[in-house]
Amino acid sequence: LKAVSQPLMTIEKDSGHGPEDKKRHPEQFDVEVITSPVDLDDTFYAKLHSIRGSIPHAVSDEQAMMNLIKAVIGTGILSLPEAFRNSGLWFACALVVFTNLINVLCIRKMVKCAHKICKNFLSDHFVSRSGRSAVDYGEMGELAVNLGPKRFRRYASTFREMINGMLYLLQFGSCSVYFIFIAENIRQAVDPHGTLPIVAYIAFVLPVEMVLCSIRQLKWLSIPSTLANIVYVVAFAIVFYYFPSWQRLPAIQTPERWPLAFGSIMFAFSSAGTILPIENRCKTPARLLHWNGVINTSYWIITILSTAVGFYGYIKYGDDCQGSITLNLPDEPLAKAVKVMVALTITLSFPLQFYSPMEVISAILKRRIKSSKKYLFAEYICRFALVLLTFMLAALVPRLALTGATLAFLFPPIIDILTEYSPDRNTGWLITKNLLIILFGMSGLIAGTV
Question: pTM for this one?
């Protein structure tokens, strides 16, 4: 029943690209595609929940929420005071709220499209043969293209590989950024004079992350995520202790400084790489989309907390705001404790960022290695090797706003258009609203490279 453990299927009916499709994967299923958009009704969700309920190590709504909040609240939120400095006090508040609203809209699109794709391809016959009840990001993109106009279907596998490539770059790049952030905060707390080089502290963190990345199930990752969220709340409570100090600051900055803020805010709230792995393991995925469900509730908490950090951090330090608010804290025991706590939370967040691309890689290994013992050995070797790779690349990682904006704001509306496409229906509004989101994402992509 594991989503990523099964091979993709060939779209035989009206595929538009001939027998070469069969060469794509060694194992494929022949299924009949529902060519018109489908509705997600109670019958479908009852069936989906029944399948998900039998999956080993499925996660509850509370565990999903802890993982989602921790996936979003990472190093980016600590740079928001600098984003407020670059955009202005009140304009930044509006920008944070608006960006999160678009982010939530795109995440909901991803989850809903994943469910519609499952309904398109999960007939009773197909479920009984493959047991699939979910898709990962790359698979969703490929199947969405196969549901769209015939002339685009030949590019389905290319779209899948493009999404997976962006996913690897963003998630493993984030892990490398985490290494640097953890090491820098530990060094500031225990060695403010920089007696040892930063690489020594990164090496100190390496074995800890290798152990944490040995956790294979998302259900058990919710434990360090919950602990990290609790420690983060305590750390922010202490940080707010240093904040109360009013000064006159511009409500809005000059437009030439906006791109810096825009790129930082987009990077701070991206969760496109982790939402589908979380959805794939939910016992009751329909509840993700409720008005008071996991996605909406998580992002309200994230928006309130992040706006408060950016707002009060900028009020306190003004134009002296640094890249991370922890760098502005004074050299005293309480502030050093905050830096250690923040380093701990990011350490516990590392395996959650690592989980999403590792799931895709594990699926590839499982298709190629039939022996369960050999597969398990190969998976752990791959896990340790990739953690070591992110360690070695820690000092070489570029800005990640590019890939974050692409995964969060460009691919979801494209997939939504393809999934909802029907030649017998007026798609004007569907295309217009998704093009507006793509334009917003392109603006962030360009801003992230400025």
Answer: 0.82
